[in-house]
Amino acid sequence: MDQASSDIVSLVREIVEPLVADKEAVRVTSSFSETGVEHVEIRVAADDAGKVIGRQGRVIKSIRVLARAAACADGGEVEVELVED
Fold first, then answer.
1. What is the pLDDT of residue 4?
2. pLDDT: is 16 or 3 the higher one?
3. pLDDT digits (tens, 9 = 90+) for 34-84
4. Looking at residue 75, what is its pLDDT?
5. Burial readout 42-58 (b: 16 or more C-beta within 10 A, e: otherwise)
6. Burial class of residue 40 (count of CB atoms within 10 Å of its CB; 0-12, 13-18, 19+)
7. What's the pTM?
8. CA-to-CA distance for 55 and 65, rounded, in angstroms?
9. Helix, coil or strand: residue 32
């Protein structure tokens, strides 16, 4: 994981942790596709998924916008996905 990748993972984690009740269940991982696009996966407890999604998906959309802006500043691309445990 390079510096830009770890920065995006840290950014996403810092945004998500205050939103959820079970902070221990938060897992943010990163991988790269063959085309060089970074895929960030957020895992939270099933009870907290709604808090991360937000009304009409506004919170997860905002997280995606911030992650894309951070990646773009470093010259990369990122996709963020929420996975319920």
1. 65
2. 16
3. 998 999 999 999 999 999 999 999 999 999 999 999 999 888 899 999 987
4. 86
5. bbbbeebbeebbeeeee
6. buried
7. 0.89
8. 16
9. strand
Sign of the four-CA dihedral 3, 7, 85, 25: positive
Residue with tokens 């920065």: 7
Q: Are residues 51 and 20 in contact, defined by beta-carbon separation less than 8 angstroms?
A: yes
Residue indicated by tokens 């894309």: 68
Residue 39 contacts residue 8 (beta carbons within 8 Å): no
Q: Report the sign of the C-alpha dihedral through residues 18, 20, 22, 28, in that order.
A: negative
Lowest-pLDDT range of 5-9, 19-23, 43-47, 66-70: 5-9
